[in-house]
Amino acid sequence: MVAKSSAATKTKDLIESLAGLKFAFSPADSREKAAIIRALAQKRIRNPVLLLKYHDTLCFMQAYPDNPRLLKLVDGELANFAKRIKHFREKNGPDDNRIDDSGIVDTTIHYSYGIQMARWLLKNYGAAVDIDWDDYNSKEADPLSGMLSLFTLYMESDGVDDENLSTEDWVTKAVRGGPTSLDWLLEKLDSLEAP
Hints:
By secondary structure, the protein is an all-alpha fold. Helices cover 60% and strands 0% of the residues. Helix 1 (2-21) packs antiparallel against helix 2 and helix 2 (27-41) runs parallel beside helix 4 (68-79).
């Protein structure tokens, strides 16, 4: 146990040191930053606070690089962040959402996007973008349920009124393994040709 605690402390110290150096741009500071990044490249970070801080520091250093060599090192470390996220999920469990909404690669962002942005995201990211049904179902209102009848044939109206089917259930059945729920919904909205 002592070795793990010591390693965790060392990782924390390295991240704190790097964050403390981000506004320092002397040649000696650049060398120290590079040495810290190389050391951290060998570390696995399970703590979400440290992982976020490390990522934020690297993003700052990418935006304000000391020199081309350090920028290349920072770019490489950021390019490997998907592996860090995979390790984080393996160690902390796939449902650990403490790093979500951070903008880090392979994390989930929850946000109520407008229709134009939703179209853009769907066009550029495809099946990686969908309706967050957990969030939708946790709300009191169910705005999509009132629209479902606009997307159906008359003979399907009994299905829309079925109290045993939630909006998510109904849309999932309508999609039937085809596009994502969001893709289906936007396609149906477009077919209405409403302003």
